Amino acid sequence: MSWELLLWLLALCALLALVVQLLRFLRADGDLTLLWAEWQGRRPEWELTDMVVWVTGASSGIGEELACQLSKLGVSLVLSARRVQELERVKTRCLENGNLKEKDILVLPLDLTDRSSHEAATKVVLQEFGKIDILVNNAGRSQHSLCMDTSLDVFKELIELNYLGTVSLTMCVLPHMIERKQGKIVTVNSLLGILSAPLSSGYCASKHALRGFFNCLRAELAAYPGIVVSNICPGPVQSNIVKNSLTEEVQKTVGGDTVQSHKMATSRCVRLMLISMANDLKEVWISDHPFLLITYFWQYMPTWAWWLTNKLGKRRIENFKNGLDADISYFKTWKTKHD
Ligand SMILES: NC(=O)c1ccc[n+]([C@@H]2O[C@H](COP(=O)([O-])OP(=O)(O)OC[C@H]3O[C@@H](n4cnc5c(N)ncnc54)[C@H](OP(=O)(O)O)[C@@H]3O)[C@@H](O)[C@H]2O)c1
Prior knowledge:
single chain, oxidoreductase, NAD(P)-bd_dom_sf, 339 residues, 11 helices, globular, 10% strand, SDR_family_member_7
């Protein structure tokens, strides 16, 4: 074979590899490191058994689904949120579908904004199970209102709950993990902790703050390689988040039931979260396109990202003003693959 032919063959292989990667990216519903971990990495079924996992915001949406999937892995669960009845419902669901016994699940009511209660709650968990292996900071609320129409109380509430509440609980659990030199602090952030989109100024601010805090904490804990700090950043996922979102006033929520079929299925989001936890990934992005693509732009090409965000942002505001879900499908052909 001549050198010229060999070079042509190599170029063809490189082109083919590029096309395959491009097609993989078009079909991706998570960042490429996460999808690699899903394919080649450690399985949650091997890594997360026998652990004590404390999930906040376990009464609904992502937290509820996480509790259910964890209950199949043989962990001990602590379920926290404000609504005890809903937590009891989730506990029953975990007992029915998982392989846990009554004694393996503790329902622990907790208001994240009541910071004075966090120390006592941590003690209760330690008394019950003797250790905390994983703290999943999942509880949170969103916001759907234009910045100029929004009362300052809404911004304050979002910081109190999403940021300070999460930081406060983490600070209560951290001394225990430092003493044991091991543990995982997993925080359910958002793609809106990386990028910013219209209608969510207060939410974006609280989630950006969280990302800054936990990235700093990770660096400060460098002397404790057994303690893993993970930021989970989902895009739109089916849950009650929009219904419970704050609007212009702190007492007002979006309410109603909006269409959610364009969003990622909660079960898929949670499966990818478990893969991230099993593989100790420091930050993961879990989303379908176009949100995933936009996040790559925000990370690597911000000037393009600002242009694109302005374009799609107009549509987001339009949807909101028409009473639709703000993120209702931008491109119909890219509708959720995992419903
Ligand atoms: N779904 C999405 O599209 C999406 C996207 C990106 C990020 N996230 C993040 O995912 C997390 C979970 O949200 P979700 O989508 O599952 O929404 P969700 O269905 O509304 O669940 C929110 C959970 O947070 C709890 N919570 C709210 N206020 C609380 C408080 N003051 N103290 C303690 N718990 C409180 C709620 O329980 P109680 O009402 O019983 O207290 C509920 O269990 C949030 O941090 C959210 O920012 C969601």
